[in-house]
Specification:
The protein has helices spanning 2-10, 222-225, 276-279, 314-322; strands at 18-22, 26-31, 34-40, 50-52, 84-88, 111-120, 125-135, 141-152, 158-168, 172-174, 180-185, 195-196, 204-205, 212-215, 232-239, 242-250, 259-262, 267-271, 288-290, 295-306. It starts with a helix and ends with a helix. By secondary structure, the chain is mostly beta strands. A hairpin with a 5-residue loop joins strand 7 (125-135) and strand 8 (141-152).
Length: 323
């Protein structure tokens, strides 16, 4: 981590409305003097980098605390679902999604590591550029990833743009599977399903009204949205009396368009590789093979907004992004 730390310190000189501050195991992001999120690259059980927590412009935390923090009454399932992450469950048979260090059962689990980071603060935007390596259990590199995360200053919205380039270090195949790829584990207060089911414990209900999943076509709730293609999906609800939501936009120029692995229990993910896994038709194949040196480029936008999808004007925001 010495090279990583030196480069981050050197690149964090400029300050502005979006302030990027590097530390030993994370890079902190502040907007207008208030904490927004951290890009965590090292520590604990995590086998991949992640952004956590994500906060609204009003300061509400819209991602789950667990497993980074334990909060009484919060669901403690799927500890690999940390904040916001990018990974996939099948790359040459290696699982980069379900891959906490404590997981011992097969399949083989990979690790995504940071090889180099650059950070830039600014008046209206800030940026973290990460060079990452996808390593199999023996340490062999399968992929190089360039991830550029741009953070925008805005009075009521929190916006992150992702520009991701995956380059094959060897011949690789992304499997047609449901667990991928740009994922968020939302705060329990936003969940559609407010009943927690944990092994060995009685079912219990989370307080507050249920959240709502909706896509660009106006289809609502998990059953109607899960596994379907759409330009965007929004997951909104109420946190401490304030109506808030998180939207993911799938850019129309993407080489692979997303289907949506979005669940009532709080998982929210854009997946460009699932097809047969979502349709149930095994004659359809969403897998993708890259030859050595071949690349896949993906662009996404995440927006944390007040109100629901309609009052937030997501359709108009999508039009602006898609141009």
């Amino acid at each position: 981590m010495k090279l990583l730390w030196t480069l981050i310190l050197f690149s964090a000189a400029a300050l502005g409305q979006v302030k990027i501050t590097p530390e030993a195991e994370r890079v902190r992001v502040e907007i207008d003097g208030r904490p927004f999120t951290d890009f965590v690259v090292k520590g604990s059980e995590a086998m991949k980098p992640y952004l956590w927590p994500l906060r609204s412009a009003s300061g509400k935390m819209v991602t789950r605390h667990f497993p980074m923090e334990r909060v009484e009454g919060e669901p403690a399932d799927h500890p690999h679902q940390r904040g916001l992450w990018f990974a996939h469950e099948g790359v040459n048979g290696v699982d980069f999604w379900n891959n906490e260090a404590s997981y011992k059962a097969p399949p083989p689990r990979g690790r995504i590591t940071a090889a180099n980071l650059r950070a830039k603060s600014g008046h209206s935007t800030g940026r973290i550029t990460a060079d990452l390596q996808w390593l199999d259990p023996q340490g062999a590199k399968l992929l190089d990833e360039s991830r550029v995360m741009t953070f925008f200053a805005h009075p009521t919205l929190r916006i992150i743009d992702f520009a991701i380039t995956l380059t094959a270090a060897t011949k690789v195949t992304f499997s047609d599977a449901k667990d991928g790829t740009l994922g968020i584990r939302i705060a329990p207060a936003l969940q559609e399903d407010k009943v927690i089911k944990e092994k060995g414990k009685p079912d219990r209900a989370l307080p507050g009204p249920p959240g709502t999943i909706v896509n660009a076509e106006g289809m609502e709730h998990e059953k109607a949205v899960w596994g379907k293609p759409s330009n965007w999906v929004d997951y909104f609800g109420e946190i401490e009396g304030e109506k808030l939501g998180i939207a993911i936009f799938d850019h129309p120029a993407n080489q692979r368009r997303a289907r949506w692995h979005v669940r009532g229990y709080g998982l929210f993910a854009a997946n460009p590789f699932g097809l047969g896994a979502f349709t149930g038709d095994k004659s359809q194949d969403g897998s993708l093979t890259l030859e050595p040196g071949g690349s896949l480029v993906l662009h996404y936008r995440v927006i944390i907004h007040p109100g629901d999808a309609k009052s937030a004007g997501l359709a108009k925001l999508w039009e602006e992004y898609s141009k």
